[in-house]
């Protein structure tokens, strides 16, 4: 079976789970939720909510995960939701050459403010900005062109147009089924979902995504957070120039 493997690389507190819902609502698609999470926690020792459950729910060997992502054939379309902060310093990214790599970005201030409500102490690397920019540059060099880039705000403004363009770029037909989905959890959600997915569980489409709210951008940032935001803005703005628009 020929499998189209769409790998969507995003930082946290984006519309990444909504995007996974969108693809999962297609009849020809299987999805996987953050397959490198356990490997990331095992390597970094970070104390995330539900850490013990996460470590026991997935293999902690990133090489085993990467091999499966490139070889498993769960459906004709295999959507992989990846967090860029899960890219470890010693991870050989050659496996990504076998994937259709796409990049989901969001205004840094919104990400930082949203993440700070869940974890108060974090670094820029824990938000995946640096890793995402490096993988984006690698993919540009490999392809000789810019890979698909989706911005959260631009996607929410016109999901049908942006998703239609994305499907064309990864050579799959667009489906209206991608624009809405049933509320609630999924069996495919990671075990960390109760800690992070409450808003997504309440959504039924991009129009109800919590990322449309202004509360994140209105929240004041601490001095360290503002410094992180300034660094992240440079990387974000560079990728934003290539984002799909309605």
Task: Describe what you observe in this structure.
Belongs to the class-IV pyridoxal-phosphate-dependent aminotransferase family. Keywords: Hydrolase. Pfam families: Sulfotransfer_5 (PF19798). GO terms for molecular function: hydrolase activity. The structure is a single chain. With 246 residues, this protein is of the alpha/beta class. It has one domain: Rossmann fold, CATH 3.40.50. 43% of the residues lie in helices and 11% in strands. The chain has 12 helices and 5 strands. It has helices spanning 16-24, 37-44, 51-57, 62-71, 108-116, 129-143, 152-157, 159-169, 193-196, 198-201, 215-218, 223-240, and strands at 4-10, 29-33, 77-83, 100-105, 149-151. Helix 2 (37-44) crosses helix 3. The mean pLDDT is 94.
